[in-house]
Each structure stands twice: as C-alpha cells, then as structure tokens.
Design a protein that fits this description.
heterodimer; A: elongated; B: six-stranded antiparallel β-sheet
Chain lengths: 137, 654
C-alpha cells in the first residue's frame, strides 16, 4: 500500500513536471510581446528587437498593393493616439476583412531605422456584426 | 409578436422560479404533491421558451426591422433558410436558443424520471436544471433581450455576414450548443446525487446516454467549425488554436476524460470523487466556452464585440464552482473508494493515464488561451502565444494519448500477467516496427510524423485484432461464418465496439492531421491570362475570367485548367464575391478533394487588367481529418443505441 502510494506520487510528479516543462519552454521560445503602436514607437519600452505582435487600425489612403510582386504596404495607427503611426510591409495577399479603419493584428519585426514593420503575419478582425457607418446600431 | 416574445420569456422565467420554489418546499416538507407540481412547472418552461423562439423566427420571416436583433442579423435580400437560422447568429438569440434547448432537455428528463419521483435525488435534479434556466432566462429578459426594439424602423436590416452564409456554419453553433447544454444534465444528476446522499453509481448509469450524446454534439460542432474555417477563411487550414476554437476544445477534452472514467466507476466503483470533479469542470468549461466567445475578453480574431455579459457569467460560474466543490468536499468521505488501483499494469491504469493526458491537454490549451491576461496581470506586459506554442506543447501529449489508446486493449483488468502481455503485444508491436521501416523507406524521416504514423499503425492493429478475435470466437461458438459473426458481434456488444470505432476514428484523424500539417505545399503568384502556376505535381493554367450578378451578390470567377504530372484533371473555379451591403468581399475557395490530397485554390486579388493573384495549396490526406472525426461521432452513437434492458453487471461494459 505504502509503496504503491509513493509510486503514484512519483508518476504524477513526473507527468506534471513534463507538462510544466513543455509549457514553460513553449512560452519562452514562442511567446511574443503584444504591444500597441505607441509602445513600439517608444524606444524605452521595447528594449529587445525580437518578433512582436502589434494591433492597430489601418490608416485611410495608405493602402498600396503591388500585384506584380505581391507586396502590400499600409500604415497603422494607435486607436488611443491617432498621431502615432507605423508603416507596415507585408509580402502576400490581404485577407478579405482588410480595409481602411479596420483593426488588424500584425506579427513581425520593427525596424527602428526605417520606421517600418516587417510583417510576417497579418490578421484582420472579422466583423461578425456590422457596425453602421453612423454608429446608429 | 414582439410582446408575445417578451411575455413568453418573462413567463418562462417565472415558471423556472416557481419550479425551484415548489421543489424546495417539497423537499423540506417531504411532501410529494409539491414535487409533482414542480415537475409540471418545469415542463411549462419548455412551452414558453418554445413560443418565444417561434416568435423570434417569425419576426425574422416578416422582416420586422424595428427589432434590433432582426435588424442586426437579417435583411430583405437574405434567403429564407438563413433568416430562420439567423436566430442564433448573434449573442441574444444564442442565449435564447440555449435556454430553449435546456428547457426541452429538462422536459425529457422529467419524462425519463417519471418512475423515479420517489427517489430522494430526483427533485434535486429538477432544481439544478431550473436554476440554470433561471440564469439564462434572466439574462435574456433583463440584460440582453432579443426582442428589444429600436426607436425607429430602419427600411432594411444589416444582413448576415456573408462568411456565415454557408450551410456548415449554420449548423456549427447549434450543435456546439446542444453539446454544451447536454452536459447540464449529467451535471444536474451529479449535484443531485451529492445533495441527496444517494452516492452509488446509479447517477452515472442514468446519465450515460446524455454524456455521450452531449459529447457527440460537441464533437460534431467542433468538426463543422473546422470545416467552415477550411472552406470559408481561405488560409488553407482548419484549426488555428484561436481562443474561440479553444473555448470549444477545452470542455471537449475534459468531457472525453469524464466519459472514460465513468466507465471505470461503473465497472470497478473507483474514481468517484474524480468523476464528480470532472463533470463539474465540464459544465463550468461549457459556460466558460460560451462566455469566452461572447465576451470578447481575449480580443480574438473573430471576436463578437465586447458586451457586458462577462460579469454575469463569471458570477454564475463562481457560484457553480464554489457550490460544486463544497458539495464534493462534504461528500468526500462517502465518495472515497474502498478499493485502490491494484497495479500499473492494468487496464484501469491506462484509463488513469488517459485522464492525466487529456487534462494536461486541457490545461495547456487553457493556459495558452489565457496567457495574455495572465502575463499582463503578473508582469504588466502582454505576452501572447499562438499556433507554434500549442503545436509544440500539445503534439507530444497527443502522441502519448495515442499510445495509451493502443495499449489499453492489450492489458487485462486489475493486474496483467507477463504471459498475457507477451502474447498480446507481439503482433501489434511487430506490425508497428514493420510499418516504421516501410515509412522510413518511403522517405518519411521527420521525427513527429514518423512517430505519429507508426503509433497509428500500432493502435489500428490492436483495435482490428480486437474485432478479429471477437468475431472469430463468436463464429466458433455460434457456428457462424465471420462475415455474419462480425456485424452481429458489433450489434450485441455495441458499447464496447462503439468505443473501439471511436478510437479508430481518432487514428484516422491523426493520420489526416499529420499528413496535412507536415507535408503541405504552398505557392502564390500573380498570373496574366495563359500563364501557369506550379505546386508540387500540379500545374494550373489561367484560362479566363467571368463576372455576373446573382441575387444578393456580384461574382467574379476565374477558370483554371488543372494538370497533374501533365495529365489534365479538368478545371477549377475560384471566386471572389461582393455581397450587397456587406462591406467586404469574400474569397470563395475552390477545392478538389481526393482521399490522397486536397488541391486548395483561392483568388485573393483581381487586378485592373484582369491579372489574378492565386494562392494554391496541396494538403495531403486532409480529408481523413473529417472522415476520422465523423467515425468518432459514429462510434459514440453506436455505443448508445438503446437495446433491451441488460442484466446489471453484465460484462459488456467494456
């Protein structure tokens, strides 16, 4: 009885340890800071220059898609502070929901020298609910 | 109709509260008549939720756009079928739908328990169901009412998001809800067992069909969601570990664990506390799933817009958790098993490991989903984890789960002997080694795919051998040829073999997931007419493009000739659609599926001079994800086909 108890505890401990290790290493190797546009621009806040995830709104009249080499460029602004913008470059095709003023999530690296964001992943929020232009609903 | 809807909801709420009052009085006074009235009141709730639901659908049919919910999810151009199903397109309707299904289920429970009214536990079952109904009905009556009116009458509604105008998407939410709501019943039985002190395993026996049925619905819901994502979102995958997907997957994992240990409790009368805990968690996670999808707390990509519902759900979940765990704590002494696990080399222990792994999967998925919130609370920095994290953490766990699935039928109950092990392990083990060598020769060198495919062979052989020996034994006994003996065996022992079929489905699904993840090919390019794009063995030639108008949309369709290794396979036609009064186009995938691979083509952009941007993918073995998934569903259904009343303690539980 005693021995089997110890054995059970040991097995559970091993399993928990294994799962804990998987989660811990998973977070440290694949985790990404999620920042606002203002935070990315504020150098003191982002010391490292690793991959980062940012969200912002697509600025009107900045979307440009070169179909030949499939390069999409656009600017995003901080919803809290419209003066803060970043230019994003994405090789690939925009998702259907992508358009001016829509909120997007980008993953990639920020190049401080050029103030451009090299985007590896572009997600647009899909509006399950349409909001009327005048916001009446 | 609006007032019929409002009054119906209000009366449903009133009768739910009446049910609780009558039952509690009956329990306290030990008076049978109150309990009988309580039963009737509970059935009445189902009547009023039905009239409310009919009223809402009627408002959709008659284009009553003064109703805010109708204006938000329908318009004149919407086809009738989608008008009916817009009922559950948004939050308010979903909550009414939830209450409606739960009240119908409750009415079924009332009918099923007609011979058990004198049992002490029965009134408690009704009380828990009525209390859950009160929560949902109070929400739609006072907080987020689907019958709320606008102060003006808009000429037309906003319509249904085109992405949701897809038959699969129509059945995805209700099947998920049927699953979520279904788990309320075993939860109610478990709480009733503890509250009344009737702690034998009879509650498990009575809810077995509910458990598996709820699990089947949840499985179908998740599968339909995956299929919808695959054909509608156009990124070529079916599962992204998005918070909304995880919200349905986490309760599924815990429910799956519960189904397995319920078998152990029925058979060996151990793990009683554990089962109570699992069903409690399944129910809370079902609520949590609804809450996560509808609250927008996680800023998921398909966020439903933040609403003030979060607080109410959190409070309700808190009440359920605290109440549930205090009941478990107070019944702990009675629930504790006299028996213990006798050996690690026993079938029971494979069930234990199955549970540990499933819960580890549930925990890592939950942890990853909530990690942005956790990290922000702890460090002040929001850190997100996405697909790579989940794949990294969950893949080894899934493979371990697969291994346990294969080991289970090889090991006897209680304590396996060395002889028995040697005899059982030989064939599957050799088959696996042979399979691994063949895979290596075929050029599969990556670690995970190799392990996954080898384990699939191992598990498949153990299951098929189980079928074979069973059929052979029956054939001998009854003098039937195998072809007759096998289906009859399946029918006679469907509980056992339904489970095996579900496991076989899991194997097929793993084959599909592994193939489509590890060996997918992708290419994208912009083509002018006549140009060709190559992906793997396929080449696609851009022939022409057309444009026309269909009732509520404008369609652009490119026609491409498909060749594989130079042989013509005909044409495919990816589309781009522009819906009337939708603010974005939709990209319609063109798919050419075979059992071997899918050719997946989208046309995300059309240029001014009719140049098109194409995105082409080859997804090997992808169809096996769905075949496997629906095989799991079939296995679950086979296991609960009702039969003649069985002798208690008969040996076909497993």
């Amino acid at each position: 009885m005693k021995r089997s108890n110890w054995r059970t505890i040991l097995v559970i401990f091993l399993v928990l340890g294994g799962v804990g290790y998987l989660i811990f290493s998973g977070v440290s190797e694949t985790g990404m800071y999620y920042r606002t546009v203002s935070e990315v621009l504020d150098q003191s806040k982002t010391l490292d220059n690793g991959p980062v995830r940012i969200s912002g709104e697509v600025v009107d009249n900045t979307i440009h898609y070169n179909q030949g080499d499939m390069i999409l460029t656009f600017a995003i602004r901080d919803p809290e502070d419209n003066s803060k913008t970043i230019k994003a470059v994405y090789k690939g095709v925009a998702p259907d929901a992508f358009k001016a003023d829509v909120e997007v999530v980008l993953e990639g690296k920020y190049d401080r020298a050029k103030n451009t964001f090299d985007t590896t992943l572009l997600l647009a929020k899909c509006p399950s609910k349409y909001v009327a232009e005048d916001g009446s609903l | 109709m609006v007032s019929i809807g409002n009054y119906s909801q209000l009366l449903a709420l009133f009768f739910s509260l009446t049910t609780i009052a009558l039952l509690l009085t009956g329990i306290m006074k030990n008076d049978f008549r109150f309990i009988m009235s309580g039963r009737r009141a509970l059935v009445t709730v189902a009547f009023f939720t039905s009239t409310a639901s009919i009223a809402l659908v009627y408002l959709f049919f008659t284009n009553n756009f003064q109703v805010e919910y109708v204006a938000s999810y329908s318009n004149r151009a919407l086809p009738l079928f989608y008008k009916a199903t817009a009922f559950w397109a948004g939050q308010k309707g979903s909550l009414l739908f939830w209450a409606w299904i739960l009240s119908l289920f409750s009415a079924v429970v009332v009918y099923n328990t007609r011979d058990e009214i004198d049992s002490k536990a029965t009134p408690y079952i009704y009380t828990v169901l009525a209390a859950t109904l009160v929560f949902f009905l109070a929400l739609i009556t006072f907080v987020t009412n689907p019958f709320d009116l606008l102060r003006f009458i808009p000429p037309d509604g906003k319509g249904l998001n085109p992405m949701l105008q897809n038959p699969g998407m129509i059945f995805h939410p209700p099947t998920l809800f049927l699953g979520y709501v279904g788990f309320t019943i075993p939860f109610a039985y478990a709480i009733a067992a503890m509250a009344s002190g009737n702690l034998d395993e009879s509650w498990l026996k009575k809810t077995r069909v509910w458990n598996i049925l709820a699990w089947v619905f949840l499985t179908i819901g998740i599968l339909l969601g995956g299929q919808w994502a695959y054909v509608e979102l156009g990124w070529g995958g079916y599962w992204a570990w998005d918070p909304v997907e995880n919200a349905s997957f986490i309760p599924w994992l815990v429910a799956t664990a519960f189904i397995h240990t319920a078998i152990i409790q029925e058979r060996r009368n151990i793990m009683k506390v554990w089962n109570m805990t699992l069903i409690l968690l399944t129910f809370v996670l079902s609520l949590f799933g609804t809450y996560l999808v509808r609250s927008g707390i996680l800023q998921s990509v398909h966020d439903f817009g933040a609403t003030g519902l979060g607080g109410y759900f959190l409070v309700f979940m808190g009440v359920v958790l605290i109440g549930g765990f205090s009941l478990i704590a107070s019944s702990y002494r009675k629930l504790r098993s006299e028996k213990v696990l006798e050996s690690y080399l026993s079938r029971e222990s494979t069930f234990l490991f199955n549970n540990v792994i499933l819960l580890a999967l549930a925990f890592s998925t939950l942890f990853g989903t909530l990690f942005p919130l956790i990290s922000e609370a702890v460090t002040g920095n929001k850190i997100t984890v996405s697909m790579p994290f989940f794949n990294r953490v969950n893949t080894p766990l899934f493979l371990a789960l697969l291994l346990v699935t294969g080991l289970c039928p090889l090991i006897g109950w209680r304590k396996a002997s060395a002889d028995n092990l040697k005899k059982n392990f030989m064939l599957p083990f050799l088959a696996m080694i042979a399979g691994t060598i063949i895979l290596l020769v075929a050029g599969i060198r990556e670690f995970y795919p190799l392990v996954a495919f080898s384990l699939c062979i191992f598990v498949a052989v153990t299951i098929l051998r189980e079928f074979w020996t069973g059929a052979k034994a029956r054939g001998k006994l009854k003098g039937e040829p195998l072809i007759v003996a096998f289906p009859r065996l399946l029918w006679r022992m469907r509980r056992r073999y339904g489970g095996f079929i579900a496991h076989l489905g899991l194997v097929l699904m793993v084959i599909g997931i592994t193939g489509s993840n590890a060996y997918k090919l992708e290419n994208q390019a912009t083509l002018t007419k006549g140009q060709t794009l190559n992906v793997g063995a396929y080449s696609l030639r851009y022939d022409r493009i057309g444009k026309w108008r269909e009732w509520n949309r404008e369609v652009y369709a490119a026609t491409l000739s498909v060749f594989k290794n130079g042989t013509s396979l005909g044409t495919i036609r990816p589309e781009k659609r522009f819906y009337v009064n939708a603010q974005q186009p939709t990209t319609e995938v063109s798919l050419r599926s075979t059992l071997l691979e899918d050719l997946y083509v989208t046309m995300p952009a059309i240029g001014r001079n009719w140049d098109i941007t194409l995105k082409v993918m080859v997804n090997p073995l992808l169809q096996w994800v769905w075949i496997g998934g629906f095989t799991m569903v079939a296995g679950g259904l086979i296991a609960i086909i009702p039969g003649r009343k069985r002798r208690v303690g008969s040996n076909d539980i497993l």
